[in-house]
Write a structure and sequence with these properties.
Elements: H1 26-42, H2 50-53, H3 66-74, H4 85-92, E1 111-116, E2 122-127, E3 131-136, E4 142-148, E5 158-161, E6 167-171, E7 176-181, E8 188-190, E9 198-201, E10 213-218, E11 224-229, E12 233-238, E13 243-249, E14 255-260, E15 267-272, E16 277-281, H5 282-288, E17 293-295, E18 302-307, E19 313-318, E20 323-327, E21 367-369, E22 381-383, E23 390-392
Parallel strand pairs: 4-8
Antiparallel strand pairs: 1-2, 2-3, 3-4, 5-6, 6-7, 7-9, 10-11, 11-12, 12-13, 14-15, 15-16, 16-17, 18-19, 19-20, 20-21, 22-23
Length: 393
Amino acid sequence: MMSRIGKDNSSCDVESASDGSSANEGASEISNNLDHDIAQLTKLWSGPHEHLSRTVPGRLRLPISTVKMLVGREGNYSGRGRFSSADGCHVLSRYLPVNGPYRVERMKSRAYVSQFSADGSLFVAGFQESHIRIYNVNRGWKVQKDILTKSLRWTITDTSLSPDQHYLVYASISPVVHIVNVGSPETESLANVTEIHDGLDFSGDEDGDEFGIFSVKFSNDGRELVAASSNNSIYVYDLEAKKLSLQIKAHMSDVNTVCFADESGHLIYSGSDDNLCKVWDRRCFITKGQAAGVLMGHLEGITFLDSRGDGRYLISNGKDQTIKLWDIRKMSSNAMYLLKDDGWDYRRMDNPPHARTLKHPYDQSLATYRGHSVLRTLIRCYFSPTYRLIFHG
């Protein structure tokens, strides 16, 4: 659930802090060690510029107050008129988590999917052997709901909490998505034993067409679900009418991820193993029957995407080991497919070194983020709910 910060002294470009510090320098040593940890991650020494740190007379002490550094920047004490990379690194070191990680719980099977609720008060984890647990973060990660699922095929592929946090849906390699009342007082929820897990059939009129749901998300008003499937399609399910309201043959390969773009519910984003992100406008789909636009830039399949909630920006994570930031105003009307047949499989192989420098010739993304790995499983990425930064897990 939480990633470990690894240390590798050989990768740092600065010398390690000396172990021979005197006792009266204990406080400075702790600060220096913290700075050194950040330097390990960024390969930049995180000490601020001397002129920024000495806005008032006296002995230099680390860490420097963020307010003091901002005053120094605005007064142009460094002569640059801005923060250097090291200055920015020093500020970030005040806010990056440095304690932990620690284990919340250990289960008998792998945690395949996980996500915080929108307000950060709940954490949902789906385990491969039919279990979903909802932890109450504000109550010391106490288990608020322990769900034993039904009709599971291999693993839980996705979960989604309703906006009011009263209901949860879970999907598997099956066309049936199940919905559970997680607002009930009971802690244990055994499928159709202690509580009913209603099945929502996404197969519609497709007789005998077996497929799996890889991604499922509530709309912002909680009235609809959107789902992505292994048969190259995306679906919209009307929870009030209890039936499908839309099916789109959306991509040339598995659709791994899908979500609503904003509160209106008109726009939908999808990502597929065909390497493309697509934007769908439900208001004009019936007349046009095609995507409103295509976003190109990934060199391998899209594992996950998340909307900023403003109907304009989204991020995507790909098997090409990158996260990309997009603005749908840059989308194209036609897709340019790249032919690749190098035999590489993210599930069994490490990413080849030469692939890290490859670029899409028609990359439309605003920014590309590297440094994490998408291997063995479809790792996901999200905007944080408060500050709209990117994190993955």
